[in-house]
Design brief:
Keywords: Membrane, Transmembrane, Transmembrane helix. This is Histidine kinase N-terminal 7TM region domain-containing protein. It comes from candidate division WWE3 bacterium RIFCSPLOWO2_01_FULL_41_18. By secondary structure, this protein is mainly alpha-helical. It is about 75% helix and about 0% strand. Helix 1 runs antiparallel to helix 2 and helix 2 runs antiparallel to helix 3. It is globular and about 50 Å long.
Length: about 270
C-alpha cells in the first residue's frame, strides 16, 4: 500500500463517512439534514482528491506520458463528479427544492464518464496492454468481454433497474440522459475489464495496488448506478441510503487509487509498464 499525506487523509475521511452512514441507519431517517449533509460530505472526497491529482499528473509530465495523461483524465473526472454532487446538495440544502431531472448536476456527472474513459485508455498504455493483444488469449478477451458486459448490462440496467421500460415520450433532454448514463456505464465497464484482463500479467511493483483500486472503483460505481436506477424506478431511493454508500465507496477507491499514483514511487514499476 502506498501511503502519503493525501492517501492517509482520504482513508481517514472514508472511515468517518462509513461511521456517519451507520449512524444514519441507526436513526432510520430518510429525509433529514444528516442524510443530505452526508451526500454533500462524500462529494468533497473526489472534488479535492481530483484537484490534488492534477498536481500529481504534472509530476508525470501531464500529456507527455501515458501515466501523466491517465492521472490527469482520472482527476478531471473526479472533479466533475464532485462538482455534480455539490450541485445536487445545493438544490437540497441551499435552495430547499426537489431536484429536477435532468439538472446541472447531471450535466456535470455525465462529463465524468468520457474523462474517466480517457483515463482508463491511457492507463492501459502505461500497463503494457499492447503486449497482451499479440497473443490468442488477449484477442479472445477483446471479443468476449464486450459481449459479456453488453449482455449483462442489458439485463441489469434495463430489465432489472428500469423494469424493461424507457419512456420514449419524455422530453428530449431527459431521454438523452436516460440513454447516455447506461451507455457510458457499459463503455466504461468494458474498458475496465479489458484493461485488467489484458494487463494483469504486467501489473507489478507498488502501482499494482492503486491501479487495482481504480479498476475496482469503476466496478463499484457501475453497481451504484444500477442501484440508483432500480431504486428510482421502484421509488425507494433516499439520500444517505445503501446506494449512497456504494457511491461513497466508489469515489473513495477511485480517488485513493489516483492519488497513490505518485511519480516518486515509479522506481518500483516494471520497466515494461512505464
Amino acid at each position: 500500500m502506498i501511503e502519503s499525506k493525501a492517501t492517509k487523509l482520504l482513508l481517514a475521511s472514508y472511515i468517518l463517512l462509513v461511521i456517519w452512514w451507520l449512524y444514519i441507519q441507526f436513526l432510520r431517517t430518510t429525509d433529514s439534514p444528516v442524510n443530505y449533509w452526508f451526500v454533500f460530505a462524500y462529494g468533497l472526497v473526489p472534488l479535492f482528491g481530483g484537484i490534488n491529482g492534477l498536481f500529481l499528473s504534472r509530476k508525470w509530465g501531464s500529456f507527455k506520458s501515458a501515466m501523466g495523461s491517465a492521472v490527469l483524465y482520472l482527476s478531471l473526472g473526479l472533479i466533475t463528479w464532485g462538482i455534480g454532487e455539490t450541485i445536487w446538495s445545493y438544490y437540497i440544502l441551499g435552495l430547499n427544492v426537489e431536484i429536477p431531472y435532468p439538472s446541472l448536476a447531471d450535466a456535470s456527472f455525465i462529463l465524468s464518464w468520457p474523462l474517466w474513459s480517457m483515463g482508463v485508455i491511457n492507463l492501459s498504455k502505461a500497463t503494457g496492454i499492447k503486449f497482451s493483444l499479440r497473443n490468442v488469449r488477449g484477442k479472445l478477451l477483446l471479443l468476449v468481454v464486450p459481449f459479456l458486459v453488453i449482455s449483462a448490462s442489458y439485463y441489469l440496467l434495463y430489465v432489472v433497474a428500469r423494469d424493461s421500460t424507457i419512456d420514449l415520450s419524455s422530453e428530449y433532454l431527459k431521454l438523452f440522459f436516460d440513454l447516455l448514463y447506461p451507455i457510458w456505464d457499459v463503455i466504461l465497464l468494458t474498458l475496465v475489464l479489458l484493461v485488467y484482463g489484458l494487463s494483469f500479467g504486467f501489473l507489478g511493483g507498488r502501482f499494482k495496488f492503486p491501479i487495482t483500486l481504480i479498476l475496482l472503483g469503476f466496478v463499484v460505481n457501475y453497481f451504484a448506478d444500477m442501484g440508483l436506477s432500480y431504486q428510482s424506478t421502484v421509488e425507494t431511493f433516499y439520500n444517505g441510503g445503501f446506494v449512497d454508500l456504494l457511491f461513497a465507496s466508489a469515489m473513495f477507491l477511485l480517488t485513493y487509487g489516483t492519488n497513490a499514483l505518485d511519480v516518486k514511487y515509479s522506481d518500483s514499476v516494471r520497466s515494461g509498464s512505464s
